[in-house]
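COURSE: Structural Biology Practicum
ASSIGNMENT: Worksheet 4, Part C
STUDENT ID: 0417
INSTRUCTIONS: Below are two proteins. For each, the amino acid sequence is given first, followed by its C-alpha cell string. Answer the questions at the end about the second protein only.

PROTEIN I
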Amino acid sequence: MRALIQRVSEARVTVEGAVLGEIGPGLLVLVCAMQGDTEAQADKLAAKIAKLRIFKDEADRMNLSVRDVSGAALVVSQFTLAAETKGNRPGFSTAAAPDAGKRLYEHFAARLQAEGVPVATGRFGADMKVALVNDGPVTIWLDTEG
C-alpha cells in the first residue's frame, strides 16, 4: 500500500458540497491499495503512521506522533498514487481493482482507528474535494513495498 501523509492544522473532504470528513490538527492520509496488497500490509501501514514522529515537541523537534499530540487523521482514498508516468499520460494498472481497493481502504481506516487515532474518511471512488492547511509543510511518502 502507498500513502502520502501531510501534517495539517485542519483538513476536510467534501462530495457534491457536503462535508464527509473533517479534522483539526493531525494528518491527512491519502492512501492507495496496489495489486496484491493484503490486510497485513494495511495493518503495517496503519501502525507505522500512528507511531510516525512528525509533530514538534517542546524543544521544537519532530519527536511526537499523532497519538502523542491527540491529533486525528483524515483518510482519503487516492488511486492516482499508483500512477505510472513513463509517458505523458499516467497509467494506473498497478492499482488494486476497485473491490479490493475499497476493502483495503476501509480496513486501513479501521486499523488506524484501532491504533488509537480518531479517523474521519472520504468516500471511496467518489469525486472528492480535499481542503487542507499543511503544517510545516510536512509531507511524507510511505510504501509498504519500500
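PROTEIN II
(use this one for the questions)
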Amino acid sequence: MTLRLATWNINSVRLRIDQVARFVQERAPAVLMLQEIKCTTDQFPRAAFEEMGLPHLRVLGQ
C-alpha cells in the first residue's frame, strides 16, 4: 500500500480551488496539507473538499 502525502503553499485556497480539485483527481493524495490558505476558518471551502473525497479536515485559518 502506498501513502501519498502532498504539501502545497497555495497562497489563497479560494482562488485556486479548481487547481486543487484537478490535482486531487490526478494525483489522489491520501493527505493534502495546504499552507498560506489566506482565509479565516469559516471562509474555508469545506464543501469543495468534501466533494473531492477529502472530508476529514483540520483547518486553522488566518
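ANSWER KEY EXCERPT:
Q1: The CA atoms of residues 24 and 52 lie 7 Å apart.
Q2: The helical segments are 17-27, 46-51.
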